[in-house]
Amino acid sequence: MRKLIEDAIRQIDDMRALDGICGKAAGLVNRATQPELIKNTLSGTWLGHALHPVLTDLPIGAFVMASALDATAGRAGATAARRLIGLGVLTTVPTALSGACDWSDTYGPTQRVGFVHGAGNAAATMLQAASWLARKRGRHGTGVALSTVSLGLTVCTAYLGGHLSYVRGIGVNHTAFQEPVTDWTDVASLSELSEGSLHRVTAGGVPVVLAVKDAKVYALSATCTHEGGPLDEGKIVDGDCIQCPWHGSVFRLEDGAVERGPASVEEPSWEVKVDSGRVFIRSATAS
After folding, report:
1. If pLDDT is split at 50, 70 and 90, which confidence band does 191 have?
2. Residues with Cβ within 8 Å of residue 252, at least 6 apart in sequence
3. Which residues fall within 8 angstroms of residue 67, CB to CB, at 6 or more apart?
4. pLDDT, position 286
5. Ramachandran quadrant class, 247 (left: phi over 0; alpha: psi -120 to 50; beta: rest)
6. Which of 15, 85, 209, 215 could make an SS bond with 222 (beta carbons 3.0 to 4.6 A apart)?
7. pLDDT tens digits, one per residue of 223-279
8. Measured CA distances, 76 to 49, 81, 88 (Å)
9. Residues 108-164 pLDDT 10s
């Protein structure tokens, strides 16, 4: 079974015919979510981690409970089951929007798998909506059949969603396994740094970006928490922030807090001291 699943995902990975529609759809989503408020809301920047996994529990839970009522209560639970399906269909809207926002920043095989994941969920939702209509018109058996087929499809798309998160690392904090550096580490000469510039160094095996703003040196981990982009190749924006060159996430130099998504997790910050013209850093968590 595992081999069959892996082969199926591999086939989706290789479906280059999807690239055209994926590129157009991702472009539309990126333009629609360009405003900071929309991007931060859908990305989960305000929440502290990705919003989409939280919302998926709502429609999936509603659809599963509706099918449970179908199986255990029959027509006695028909009204409650129909209400649960209606609730599930409604909650797929914010769930799909947040998922599309995350998906639009992916590329290549991962984007193809994400597209199939989203298309499958859309089909499953349409089946549930048809089930709700059938039940409302008194066609209980048809409604149950449609919900059952939809739930089976949802299981398949949920597997793809798990694959994207736990195998491909979408929505995962890319600095989660960086070990804190507790000792002051000499990383650069102050003369190497210039105002408004970004400079990549390494401390304890961890890449760090140094930035000079108003003659003060700041340090953040150089790996973007969102998708691992190199912050040292980004730029200083808004006076006191750094922007990732890959997807535009913006972090405060002072403490790594997220000012703009798609990142939802703050960037690890580092303490800085200058001694005898040398720059020393250590993890902010070390103090």
Report:
1. very high
2. 240, 241, 259
3. 81, 147, 148, 151
4. 64
5. alpha
6. 209
7. 999 999 999 999 999 989 999 999 999 999 999 999 999 999 999 999 999 999 999
8. 40, 10, 20
9. 999 999 999 999 999 999 999 999 999 999 999 999 999 999 999 999 999 999 999
Q: Which two tokens stand for residue 156?
A: 């398949």
Q: What CATH number does the domain located at 185-286 have?
A: 2.102.10.10
8 A C-beta contact, residue 209 and residue 223: no
Element at 194 (helix H, strand E): none
And the tokens for 283? Answer: 């993890």
Alpha-helical regions (H) of the chain = 2-13, 19-32, 36-43, 52-73, 78-103, 108-136, 140-166
Q: What is the pTM of this model?
A: 0.90
Cβ–Cβ < 8 Å for 184, 287: no
Distance from chain centroid for Cα 147:
28
Our CA dihedral for 246, 248, 252, 257, rounded to 10 degrees, sits at -90
Question: What does the block give as tokens for 89?
Answer: 């269909």
Of 165, 162, 161, 95, the C-alpha closest to 128 is 95
Instruction: Give Cα 108 distance to the centre of its chain.
Output: 16
Query: Which structure tokens are listed for 43?
Result: 């990305």
Look-up of token digits 């449970």: 68
Distance CA 135, CA 150 (A): 15
